């Protein structure tokens, strides 16, 4: 059977990639893509890591996957930080496995795997799953790239390690059909280095290319492949503070004592942040980490008085997009009108407003925000409270997500990838496998081809992860080694 290589790179900037390729800095990427053009890839709305990757693994919109950002609404006003275990849908490699297609999955962000018969699985960033069917010598050395690194040498080390693990498995488990290889490193470099040492970001890209070249030299150059990123990254110079805007419009109330409380931990320490100390989503994460909390632990976010506000934002930054919840439905049309007419220097601030029913369907639709704002591409939308709280528009300098990631692929001619949802269906189609009957039917292949067969995949078929060593033995029998 033919093989497929899928490389997923978190948060790569299409414009930076293009510039570096043009300047001859990424020779291996350029050669490998050859005449296969790389192009911008439309991410999910919101364009954030858990949402976009999960949609690419499942072919389903956030209303079906239940992942619509880093935070998940658990009851009316409580929130949890998500990880891969929140995705209850079958992933592409699980469906391949059910059809006896063997996969190696390494470091794909927020990936999960419970159907483990034909899979070697190493988790990626935000994954909850443990390693599955992984030889002990790899188990010992495999590591994710930490979020708190600034030094070029460290980026090199972690990129090199990921490729070394991939090369080892490539060599020792030749029997694979699909090889998924993920990288979180470039996204971390964008977030950490854009203002401190922007020139190092280019160097990280160049090292990535160099190391990729060595990896690709061990693979048939005519292999079918998909390279893609979940969203882009860009520098924003202006920010639109949605919280200030709603506050000024008297639609949102702020809690006098803004607290981040953790249920369970609350009994031990009650931490009360003084008003006007900037609290952002990321500082909440840091706070949780500092106090040894797990990402799945409950976070009660009380920045806004959500209950008594008419409108409040979803507190998760995502570039020039934001979701907002509406408690008082009678003000909805007026608010849309107000946002549409908002101008800065004679320019519209909000480019587009989506209603949730325009974008999402499925069992989780109810817990998703009611409106989604898309600002002009120069405006970062900030839901956080700062010292400059009352300012609606301010100058900023931040590297944040943008809607367009990138994709390059070498697949049978009839397959096209136009949005991130198409990754899933493109892979199934390549391997001639029936599509799940609850896949979003607006994917490229579903809408263009009428001869697709659908199948009801049952979650009951999913095996739980067992003792790795036992499965390692059974893997031998299945012909991986
Ligand atoms: Zn991402």
Model description:
The chain has 16 helices and 22 strands. It is an alpha/beta fold. The chain has two domains: 4-66 and 87-231 and 403-477, Alkaline Phosphatase, subunit A; 233-251 and 311-402, Gyrase A, domain 2. Strand 14 (343-344) and strand 15 form a beta hairpin. Helix 2 (27-33) crosses helix 9, helix 7 (152-172) packs parallel to helix 9 (198-216) and helix 8 packs antiparallel against helix 9 (198-216). The radius of gyration is 22 Å and the shape is globular. The model is unreliable at 257-301, 461-472 and 474-481 (pLDDT under 50). Bound molecules: zinc ion. Residues 10-11, 49, 187, 230-231 line the site of zinc ion (ZN).
CATH topology of the largest domain: Alkaline Phosphatase, subunit A
Count of domains = 2
- Compute the separation of the termini in Å: 17 Å
* CATH architect. name of the largest domain: 3-Layer(aba) Sandwich
Q: Strand order, biggest sheet?
A: 2-20-8-1-7-5-6
CATH superfamily annotation of the largest domain: Alkaline Phosphatase, subunit A
Proportion of β residues? 15-25%
Low-confidence segments? 257-301, 461-472, 474-481
Secondary structure: number of strands: 22
Instruction: From the alpha carbons, calculate the radius of gyration and give it in angstroms.
Output: 22 Å
CATH class of the largest domain: Alpha Beta
Question: How would you sum up the major sheet?
Answer: 7 strands, mixed
Bound molecule kinds, no repeats: zinc ion
Tell me the number of helical segments per DSSP (H or I, 4 or more residues long). Answer: 16
**What structural class should be given to the helix and strand makeup?**
alpha/beta
Overall pLDDT, averaged?
85
Outline, from the CA principal axes? globular
Helix amount = 25-40%
